[in-house]
C-alpha cells in the first residue's frame, strides 16, 4: 500500500499544509514534498503582509511559497484576501486620518464606504491578477461570522461591516471573480462551522449570497478541532448542508488539539505527553478521515494548519493559557517529524 498521504487520498481530495517561507527548506520541505500536494501560506499572504501601507505591495515572502508550489507541482490555496485580523489600520482611516467607524454624518459615511470599497477592490484586484495562474482556491473572506456579535444575523462587527454592511463581502467575491481564472474556486472560510448557532448563521449568509448571484464556489471549514469536539455528526451535517446548496467544501486549517478550550492544563513539554494521548488522538483521526472519505464527492481538499508538532499556533495558545509553559501536538507528524499513531490511522 502507498504510504504518502497525498497518494493515499489521491482519488478523494488534495492533502495540504500551511507553511511559513522558512519551512520550505530543511525537514519540513522534505515532508511537504513527500506527503502533500497542496500548500497554503500560514501568514504571509494576509493583508498586513501583502499591503502594509496603501499602495505598497510586498510580495517577496508570498512569492517564495508560490515558487515552491510550482516547482513541486502542488496546488496552492490563497489565505486570505479579506480578514478583520492582521489587516493594517490604514484601510479604515479616512483621508484626514480619522477612524471611519467614528463618522456620524450620513454623507461622509457614504463617502467613507465608497473609499473603503475602492481600497478593497484595489487590494483584491492587484493580488488576484498577480497570482491568477498559481492559485486554484481563494479564501476571499475569512471569519465574517461572529455568533457573539449580538446582531440577529451573527455578522461580525468588524470595521469592514461597520463601514460597508455586507457589501464588502459581495464586492470581494465579485472582484476576485473578475480577475481569477475561470476554473479557480472562491471560498468563504470560517471556524466552528460545525456547531450551532454559528453553522446556521453561516448557512443563512451563504444562501443569501448564492440567491443574490454572488460568485461563491465553496465553504472553507477551518476545522480547528479537539479530540472530543465537535461530534462526527455535526461535522458531517455541516458538509452536507453546504453541499446541498450546490457548493464545494474544503477542510482548510485542520488540527486536532489534545485539549479542550481554553487549553488548560497543558503538558509542559513534548516529552511529558503520554503515548496514550497519541493513541486517543489516532482514534479521532481515524474516524475523521473515514468520514471525509465517505463524503469525498463533497470535499475537494483537506489542509492541515502546519506540518509537524514542532510548529503550530496551538503551542502559542498552550503557553498563553498555562503561564508560559505548555505544548500541544495536533498533527500526524511529531515534533521531530516522525510519524505518529495518527498518521497510521489515516493511512490504513
Ligand atoms: O512576525 C512577527 C515577528 O516579527 C515577531 O517577533 C513576533 C512576536 O510575537 O510576532 C510575529 O508575528 C506573529 C505571526 O503569527 C507570525 O509568526 C504574530 O505575533 C502572531 O499573532 C501570528 O499568529 C498567527 C495568527 O493566525 C494571527 O491571528 C498564526 O501564526 C496563524 O497560525 C494564525 O492562523 C489563523 C488563520 O489565519 C485563520 N484561522 C485561525 C488560525 C489560527 O489562529
TrEMBL record:
Catalytic-site annotation from UniProt: 253 (nucleophile)
Annotated InterPro entries: GH, GH10, GH10_AS, GH10_dom
Enzymatic class: hydrolase
One Gene Ontology MF term: endo-1,4-beta-xylanase activity
Keyword list, A-Z: Carbohydrate metabolism, Glycosidase, Hydrolase, Polysaccharide degradation, Signal, Xylan degradation
Record bears the keyword Cell wall biogenesis/degradation: no
GO BP terms in the entry: xylan catabolic process
Pathway(s) annotated for this protein in UniProt: Glycan degradation; xylan degradation
Annotated catalysed reactions: Endohydrolysis of (1->4)-beta-D-xylosidic linkages in xylans
Source superkingdom: Bacteria
EC number: 3.2.1.8
Domain named GH10: residues: 1-348
Pfam families (alphabetical): Glyco_hydro_10
Family: Belongs to the glycosyl hydrolase 10 (cellulase F) family.
Name of protein: Beta-xylanase
Source species: Pradoshia eiseniae
